[in-house]
Amino acid sequence: MAKKTAPKTTGKIGGFLAALLALLVGVGFVSPDTRDWLLSWLGGSPSSQQTGPTSTPVDASKLPKTPSSFDSAKRILYEKIYAGHSKTFYCGCDFDPKQRTVDLASCGVTPRKNAERASRVEAEHVFPAEWFGGFRPCWRDSEKVCGLDSKGEKIPGRKCCEKDPVFMTAHNDLHNLYPAVGEVNGDRSNFSWGMIPGNKQEYGRCAIKIDSSIRRAEPPDAVKGDISRTMFYMSATYGFRLSRQDVQLFNAWDKQDPVDAWEQERNRRIAAVQGNLNPFITEDSKQLDSSHVSDAPAGAVTPTAVAVTPAPAPVYRCEPKKTCGQMTRCEEARYHLTQCGNTGLDRDGDGTPCASLCGG
Predict the structure, then answer these.
(1) Which residues pair with 101 in a beta bridge?
(2) What is the per-residue pLDDT across 246-302, written as a single tens digit (0 to 9) for each?
(3) Which helix (H) or strand (E) is 124 found in, with range?
(4) Contact residues for 4 (Cβ-Cβ < 8 A; gap 6+)
(5) Do 171 and 237 touch, CB atoms closer than 8 A?
(6) Is 169 a domain residue?
């Protein structure tokens, strides 16, 4: 029997199919891996046919002068920006900036599952790193940008993006970094911000709600405005467009939780380090420009007119995988670390599992 070959798609038909698949990925009906397989089977490489996210051109010379490395950013955040105000963002726990430990008794936090991680402070990206990373070529097509490593294996996108000045500037931007209880940081992952009905508090007296089934997090009322102004800042500074629904929600949070004295002081301290203020804190009537607003679904972040929603999480199980070598992607490793309590994946205790997949 002759071997069945895949049909070839060319011209307008191929472009239409690629655009349709991109749309299905955007609304969550098709995973990126399935899209890539289908495009490959139909006779074209994903990189040549897909119409996924493309970054708006950014002049790196006009961006903030953020810390050169994430380690440096964390040190400055804990020891300089939060000097005399060593409180975690969501839960208000005391933390030691040198030892990077959290006093859970000071805030009434009860670990949900991972007491070890809950006891350390971590730097939380309010605007998730994976969101802005996903718009950079180094993250989307690391093999093309960075080639293969010495073992002939694909370099993880996060690791490849360490050579991308725009990504590193955004990744280390102190305006987007907040000290957080480690377990809360891990559980929040890269989930969208939004409202969660009912009582979903799982961390003692800490009022943050996280629902992994819908990939959403609702912050405590006391910091909802801070989060809104941070999201607006990242959108305006790095060219990402927020959905109209999210902008409406963030505007409401901005009014519900106005700027306080500490947020103003934090803004000034960050400006002293990297040379720029968050204008959504300093200007009371500052609004996000309409060019940074899209009609994409809530939770979608887009750099162009193409709507791109973070893909739904694949279904992972805690068994039987135990080692980094058994993981297929960074997100899977994060799941095993945060949801299954597999601390062996995070040998250096920095909150990032499996350096071969997630960098670090």
Answers:
(1) 96, 120
(2) 999 999 999 999 999 999 999 999 999 999 999 999 997 788 888 778 777 777 666
(3) strand 121-125
(4) none
(5) no
(6) yes
- Tell me the pLDDT tens digit for each residue of 143-179: 999 999 888 999 998 889 988 888 999 999 999 999 9
328 and 303 within one domain: no
The reply to whether 286 and 162 lie within a common domain is yes
Domain of residue 118: give its range: 57-311
In whole angstroms, what is the distance from residue 192 CA to residue 131 CA? 10
- 319-357 tens-digit pLDDT: 777 788 787 777 778 778 877 888 888 877 777 888 766
277 and 157 in one domain? Answer: yes
Determine phi and psi for 242, rounding to 5 degrees.
Answer: -90, 150
Spatial separation of the C-alpha atoms in residues 133 and 125, rounded to whole Å: 12
Query: In sequence order, which residues have a C-beta less than 8 Å from that of residue 305 and are 6 or more positions away?
Result: 294
On whether both 348 and 250 belong to a single domain, the answer is: no
> Into how many domains does the chain fold?
3
Angle between helices 32-41 and 11-27 (to 10 degrees): 160
Distances (CA, A) of 183 to 17, 89, 91, 111, 260: 41, 13, 11, 7, 27
Q: Nearest Cα to 131, choosing from 280, 311, 329?
A: 311
Residues 250 and 318 in one domain: no
Average pLDDT of the residues in 121-128: 97
